[in-house]
Design brief:
Elements: H1 3-18, E1 40-42, E2 49-51, E3 53-55, H2 66-78, E4 83-84, H3 94-102, E5 112-117, H4 122-136, E6 141-146, H5 154-158, H6 164-173, E7 177-183, H7 188-200, E8 207-211, H8 222-225, H9 227-232, E9 236-240, H10 247-250, H11 256-265, E10 270-273, H12 278-289, H13 296-312, H14 317-320, H15 326-329
Parallel strand pairs: 3-4, 3-10, 4-5, 5-6, 6-7, 7-8, 8-9, 9-10
Antiparallel strand pairs: 1-2
């Protein structure tokens, strides 16, 4: 056996040995307060119950001062949003710092906390994880996802000997994280490669995050290509890019509440949406309060209305440009 083949086999065996039953829960999920008017769903096969609206982490680091961010996060939690999104690199760490401050005074126990790591190696992942734990002021992060799996080589790097997957599994065993997932927004083919690579190493992801919106069905569709595979594997689906930043709304083909209702109608656990003000928070809460699953006819009508704009390629820029590729702008973070 050649050395590289031996290393691949050894890595796969090591990952399999440290991963118990592919659908095993890490512990009994805690019960969190639930509010009337909010929707709650199961998170894949984890046994966790979380809010179907998730608070996007990037936008809560953009306020002019920390007090605004903290008040916004706490208002979201008080209103029933339990799923909190974040990332090691959002606003150079400021998003995590402010979320950590907001989760003091008893708020941590009310939230399901998620963040993401850019690191592809064991060493870089560990360094970033320790920084995130400190910023978030917690001993345990509920879910940590590999951020921006957007290149065909990303799965191989993560699952390579001394790759980030080894660090994630060790962190889970040490109680620093509870669940493991991955994200990406570029091409469903990369997501499918990540899922295939995980299967080769006998590893089961708890979650997968992807763009799911009213234009996705028309071009490089995660909804059509990735969701069926994730559902079959019992993976919790996290929807993002409901508005494509602001670009999908700029197309004038859909209203905000309608776009959120479309996302909530799909077989997802959570729709993560950017919330940067009390007004936008109220918009998300209204979407939850007024939600009724869209009928097939209603969904078909929306997709017909958005088709022409979607095919222009100007509204899902996260798929067609590097504008939203944080890891591409800072490749050193991947090391």
């Amino acid at each position: 056996m050649e050395r590289r083949d031996f290393l691949k086999s050894a890595t796969a065996a090591g990952i399999a040995a440290t991963t118990s039953s592919s659908f095993a829960q890490t512990s009994t999920p805690p019960k969190r307060p639930e509010a009337p008017g909010m929707i709650y769903r199961e998170l894949g096969t984890t046994g966790e119950r979380v809010s179907a609206i998730g608070l996007g982490g990037y936008h809560i680091g953009k306020q002019s001062n920390a007090d605004e961010s903290i008040a916004l996060i706490r208002k979201a939690i008080d209103s029933g949003i339990t799923f909190l999104d974040n990332c090691w690199d959002y606003n150079d760490g400021l998003s995590e710092v402010r979320m950590g401050q907001a989760l003091r005074d008893g708020y941590r126990s009310k939230a399901f906390l998620m963040t993401k790591m850019d690191g592809r190696t064991k060493d870089s992942y560990n360094k970033q994880l320790e920084q995130s734990l400190g910023r978030l002021q917690t001993d345990t992060i509920d879910l940590v996802q590999f951020h921006e799996v957007i290149r065909m080589e990303d799965p191989d790097r993560i699952f390579a000997p001394n790759g980030a997957i080894e660090a994630a599994i060790a962190a889970k065993q040490a109680g620093k994280i509870r669940y493991i997932g991955f994200t990406g927004h570029k091409d469903p083919a990369v997501h499918l490669r990540m899922l295939e690579t995980a299967q080769k190493h006998s590893f089961h992801f708890d979650t997968v995050q992807m763009p799911i919106n009213v234009m996705d069905a028309h071009f490089r569709s995660f909804t059509k290509e990735v969701i069926p595979v994730a559902l079959k594997q019992g993976i919790g689906i996290l929807a993002m890019k409901t508005f494509g930043d602001h670009h999908i709304l700029d197309s004038k083909t859909v209203e905000p509440i309608e776009a959120l209702h479309y996302g909530l109608t799909q077989p997802v656990s959570v729709v993560i949406t950017g919330i940067d003000s009390p007004t936008i928070l109220e918009q998300a809460l209204t979407a939850a309060r007024t939600f009724k699953p869209l009928t097939e006819a209603q969904q078909t009508a929306i997709l017909a209305r958005t088709r022409e704009a979607a095919l222009e390629g100007r509204y899902e820029l996260f798929k067609t440009s590097a504008q939203y590729d944080g890891t591409a702008a800072n490749p050193k973070w991947l090391g």
